[in-house]
Design goal:
Blueprint: E1 18-22, E2 25-29, E3 34-35, E4 41-42, E5 56-60, E6 63-67, E7 72-73, E8 79-80, E9 94-98, E10 101-105, E11 113-114, E12 120-121, E13 133-138, E14 141-146, E15 150-151, E16 157-158, E17 172-176, E18 179-183, E19 188-189, E20 195-196, E21 210-214, E22 217-221, E23 226-227, E24 233-234, E25 248-251, E26 258-261, E27 266-267, E28 273-274
Organism: Pedionomus torquatus (Plains-wanderer)
GO molecular function, one term: calcium ion binding
Pfam families: EGF, hEGF
Length: 292
């Protein structure tokens, strides 16, 4: 294993690249116009859009070629060809160079007029410059009569109806066309957020609970045997173990009540009173017999 393998023997580099052998590896030195690990990719010099004036770019090896539109020349199509250089206009007409073309003009008309004798008033309204209104043509210009709710030279600005509004209690004004809308904070309602909301209107309290309206909230006063934010939770009276001395607790059919079943020798509502079976009125012995 004393001989190092020359990875360049398999000719891994493409497109005339130079292969440099390294320990257990190789690297390629690419010719201009190529890239990649093995110089397999042709660099697209058209990617940066070097050609100007909408010219077409053709990618070449280590270069590119611009195919110019009519009227342009140069390596990047950067030069506008002066079509007036050949004096194409006759009879004293003025030649006006244009991109890829030219025009002949006999008269230099004042602004707002056109035609061979400048007899035509240019209609500046033909381009429909008024966005939300009627256009009146004037000499070398136009005037827009805006529809209601719009302003600006071209009627392109929607008038902000929130500039003067009646929204109350720190509500937010939202501009609409020819009107506005008040977006109320929680706890307020009405067209202008002028009324405090009554959260009890939706009857949130259940099981005959009484609703007490608060600001942006409510409170339920529950009837006997019910609890919870909306009085929907049945109170389990026996959960608190009210019956004493080993008595058994039963929920009553009447809401909010319970019954204690006492063990022997205990009595009372909660079986809290102990008694002797030989004492009155519990003594079962009769005819002056003795209870033991």
């Amino acid at each position: 294993c004393e001989t190092e393998v020359d990875e360049c023997l398999s000719d891994p580099c493409h497109n005339g690249a130079t292969c440099v052998d390294r320990l257990n590896a190789f690297s390629c030195i690419c010719q201009d116009g190529f890239q990649g690990t093995t110089c397999e990719a042709n660099i697209n010099e058209c990617h940066s859009s070097p050609c100007l004036h909408n010219a077409s770019c053709t990618d070449l090896i280590d270069g590119y070629e611009c195919i110019c539109l009519s009227g342009f020349t140069g390596e990047l199509c950067e030069t506008d060809i002066d079509e007036c250089a050949s004096f194409p206009c006759q009879n004293g007409a003025t030649c006006i160079d244009q991109p890829g073309n030219y025009s002949c003009q006999c008269c230099q008309c004042v602004k707002g007029f056109a035609g061979p004798r400048c007899e035509i008033n240019v209609n500046e309204c033909s381009s429909n410059p008024c966005f939300h209104g009627y256009c009146y043509d004037i000499v070398n210009g136009f005037y827009c009569l805006c529809n209601p709710g719009y302003a600006g030279l071209k009627c392109d600005q929607d008038i902000d109806d929130c500039i003067i509004n009646a929204c109350e209690h720190n509500s937010t004004c939202t501009d609409l066309h020819l009107s506005y809308q008040c977006v109320c904070l929680p706890g307020w309602e009405g067209t202008f957020c002028e009324y405090e909301s009554n959260e009890c209107n939706s009857e949130p309290c259940k099981n005959n609970g009484t609703c007490m309206d608060l600001f942006n909230s409510y409170r339920c006063l529950c009837t006997v045997g019910w609890t919870g934010p909306d009085c929907s939770e049945d109170i389990k009276e026996c959960d608190s173990e009210p019956c004493l001395n080993g008595a058994t607790c039963y929920e009553s059919i009447k809401q909010g009540q319970f019954v204690c079943i006492c063990p022997p020798f205990f009595t009372g509502e909660f079986c809290h009173q102990r008694f002797s079976p030989c004492e009155l009125p519990y003594n079962p012995c009769i005819n002056n017999s003795t209870c033991l």
